[in-house]
What we know:
The complex is a heterodimer of chains A (285) and B (321).
Chain A: H1 15-36, H2 41-45, H3 48-58, E1 73-76, H4 82-92, H5 132-146, E2 152-157, H6 164-175, E3 181-187, E4 190-191, E5 194-195, H7 196-200, H8 205-211, E6 215-220, H9 224-234, E7 241-246, H10 254-257, H11 269-284
Parallel strand pairs in A: 1-2, 2-3, 3-7, 6-7
Antiparallel strand pairs in A: 4-5
Helix pairs in contact in A: 1-3, 1-4, 1-11, 3-4, 3-9, 5-6
Chain B: H1 8-13, H2 20-30, E1 34-38, H3 42-45, H4 48-53, E2 58-60, H5 65-76, E3 81-87, H6 88-94, H7 96-104, E4 111-115, H8 133-138, E5 144-147, H9 151-160, E6 168-171, E7 193-196, E8 201-205, H10 208-220, E9 227-231, E10 234-236, H11 240-250, E11 252-256, H12 265-275, E12 281-285, H13 297-303, H14 308-320
Parallel strand pairs in B: 1-2, 1-3, 3-4, 4-6, 5-6, 8-9, 8-11, 11-12
Antiparallel strand pairs in B: 5-10, 7-9
Helix pairs in contact in B: 2-9, 5-7, 10-14
Amino acid sequence: MTRNTILSRNRSVDPVRLSERADWIRLETIRLIEIAKSGHYSSVYSCAEMFSVLYYRTLRLDPANPRWADRDRFLLGKGHAAIGQYPILADLGFFPEDWLDSYTRLGSPLGDHPDMNKVPGCDFSSGSIGHNLSVGVGMALAARMQKRDYLTWVMLGDGELNEGQVWEAAMAAGHYRLSNIIAIVDANGMGLDGDIEDVMGIEPIASKFEAFGWTATEIDGHDVGSVVEAFDAAQEATGPHVIIARTKKGKGVRFMEVSPHWHLGYLGPKDKDVAIAEIGSRIAK
Amino acid sequence: MDPASWNIETSLAKLPGLTMGDELCAMAAEREDIVVLTADLASSNGTSVFRDRFPERFINTGIAEQNMMSVAAGLAASGFTPYVSTFAAFASLLCAEQLRTDMAYTKLPVRILAHHAGVSMGFYGTSHHAVEDLAIMRAMANMTVVSAADGNATRGLLRATADIPGPVYIRIGRGAEKPVYGTIPTFESGRFVKIREGADLTVIATGIGTKIAIDAADALVQDGIALRVLDAAWIKPIDRDAVLAAAAETGGILTVEEHNPNGGLGGAVAEILAEGGIATRFRRHALPDDYVLVAPPSHLYRHYGLSADGIAAAVREMVAN
């Protein structure tokens, strides 16, 4: 394995390109859901910019060596957004791009939720929400014990914060003063049954984490410049750090932004063309 | 009652069968990948000796068992072999989903030290009774399930499972078990241990059942009944050959376990017999399919017939019919 295959941490990338990659993730999500005829569009759309910044700029990775011991870990607590992760992993060379065409088909490595033993580049399986922050605490403790300098990033949904285990993990990360774990909350404010505020309110998120010994930053999760800045700063934080990214479910396609029904669904041909045209118009600019 | 028995350290000193702390120290001295976790129970389960000797490899998550299990999975995914310890009732029921999704599905080498199994915490109440764990664990793909008859068996099973690539559920008693093994036994994967040979009936027992089955076998000699006694130390994978041989050679099987009758050792043996088309005398000797009374464990064992007398009576009935 030659060292020059490694994607270094915090690479210098044009912010316009990062925004375009986010929209490309949105288009790929539409393409893959066409195969499955069902999928989570809008929860990918709320974190598309953060996926883009993480994978194309922030994380230290080696696509030729997916289990490289010193890679930065990324755990997708909100595992149903895996469909947004797969095109990136293929694009970076973790696995052949034609795997994408098998999405959710019998025997495919690519299901609606990530599987660490089937998907190169996937650092842990998820699906039952609320577990991955704990797993991340285990990985961060492991790094400390092994004296490795990798960072563990865990992306959670704000609905996921309703799960009690998240707060057990937050307590443990605070107790162990883990400076090598960074949580990202994709706070799109929406669950399957509607506004999280109505279903089971979780605000104020920042002060809850802070009470467990974390530092917290709040950003606009769709503003690439803010995301880059927050991701850079988080790596320098003392103790565990959480970035609460205020986002919009279905961001980037107007009819999805105004309707909560796209957590899980299938765009018919007409809606699909409208969505592709809208996203495509931004990339063409 | 001796007031000193309520002192945890004194109480522990009386429980020589909780050997896992010592054994893990011995193993960890040779293997740097071993880490031990507990949820505020180091003083209760004897992992305190590991904490004192290897503080840098000991993690106490506080009373947050589900977090502990998933943290262990994260450690395992990063190259460690975690031994996670808590009461069997909490390991199996409270954390069933973490064990299944974060360890079994992911095939990670986490070992679950599920101690104080069965009704060994009798008077602490139903919440502390672990009588469904074998059924739950048996239903999980990739999960190896073993069950210790005494302290030496615990040591032997820790050694025998040390290199299994996936998760292992290790069912352990309270440490007060009467000894079955005079020395540390060598266990073979998926094999029962033949403790007594006999031609009239086979008792397949696990956990505390093994010692009382041996005592029953001794008592039954006076009745002219020769019992074969097998220690089902390995529950999954199970010893299919030993079950079929017992049916063919001794004409009947009685299973003995400190568990609900459904889905545990008895259920596993019944499945083998049924699928093998074997018609033989068969009976499950277990706790009732009900919530067990609250009482000191010794009273419960007597009350529910988990005793040499209880087993002997069941055997006599089976042999007579």
